[in-house]
Amino acid sequence: MMPTPVILLKEGTDSFQSIPQLVSNISACQVIAEAVRTTLGPRGMDKLTVDCRGKATISNDGATILKLLDVVHPAAKTLVDILAVNKIKETAVTVKKADKVEQRKLLEKCAMTALSSKLISQQKAFFVKTVVDAVMMLDDLLQLKMIGIKKVQGGALEDSQLVAGVAFKKTFSYAGFEMQPKKYHNPKIALLNVELKLKAEKDNAEIRVHTAEDYQAIVDLEKIHHSGAKVVLSKLPTGDVATRYFADRDMFCAGRVPEEDLKRTMMACGGSIQTSVNTLSADVLGRCQVFEETQIGGERYNFFYWLPQEGSLHDAIMIVRRTIKNDSVVAGGGAIEMELSKYLQDYSRTVPGKQQLLIGAYAKALEIIPHQLCDNAGFDATNILNKLRARHAQRGTWYGVDINNEDIADNFEAFVWEPAMVRINALTAASEATCLIVSVDETIKNPRSTVDAPPAAGCGRGHGRPH
Q: Segment Disordered: which positions (predicted)?
């Protein structure tokens, strides 16, 4: 008697397995690699990505490009997700602790390396000082979210400025806003998540309170005034009555402030965001040295200066941040990859069996980085790699590709550095992703569930009720 077949998967489920499936997964990952490999290094090319809404993005940052790709293949999508979690970057730098003056010089050289492959590379000398100043203003925690980049249309790149404080675009305002002062010295700042909105009244009219909510709204405004705050920021709307109320008392107000800007102001100026005005006191108010509203290009911005805690730019900011946080460094430009490749090839000769082939293949794969740097720069990759192999065999540990002179050079002396932790994370993520893809021998794709649409009106059987 034949055994009864067991139906495990629903009808329409696709299953791919065995060697063809493994080859398909590897091929999909190779397509992902081909999409970003030409962006590597200072001579890397840019990619133009257009999303489903027609928004175009030009970038040569591998992490940004992978984030914008709408990947469908399961294995390739898994690879992209792993890389996104680890946030692998091509460039990152660190230096050992030094005195402030010497450290600043090293940080500027590190940031210069990071900006050389960006769209603002022609202005990198200008932005390097801005980036280093911004990171060195942070405290020992070096929180990246404390650094914000605001983009304003109009003007030249050199018109950019560093604000030693918080800046955000002026929010929507009601009539009466023009009567409010636009500059304060040593003001107290109230940060609220409260709606301060009343119905507008006509000129020379009186406010008649009909409900408890209207009365409470007026009381809220009085409590804010009595707290001593001169600048009032709220995540929720601030109406025209409240705007004129504050203007009559020489107070500044802004409603619908983005949550990110409100939190950054709180972290920088102190205080805390209140959900009720009943708890307003000196302990929950923030402070800054100067607050003012200024015209920048075609927009008006609110600035908070001198805080008490005293991409294209994101990569450079990350570099200087890592520079201060970490205390270990390796040379970039393919130097560390060539040294690791040499070490693994020597080690593979001491390992018996098939493991020797695996270690040798891993060592060979590490040479892809300097090889791709040469290809992107238009160099003879075979000639450069032969020089690097010979130099590393003679204990030239930090020798890598010299982009400027089409040769090899000691990249440690040339300030082409990378933090050791970043390289460790990159190699670990790449190894884990490879092991994951190779270990998958079957892909099961469930069919998309469909819901039967209700029958259209008038399509049923039978006759209608007689009238």
A: 447-467
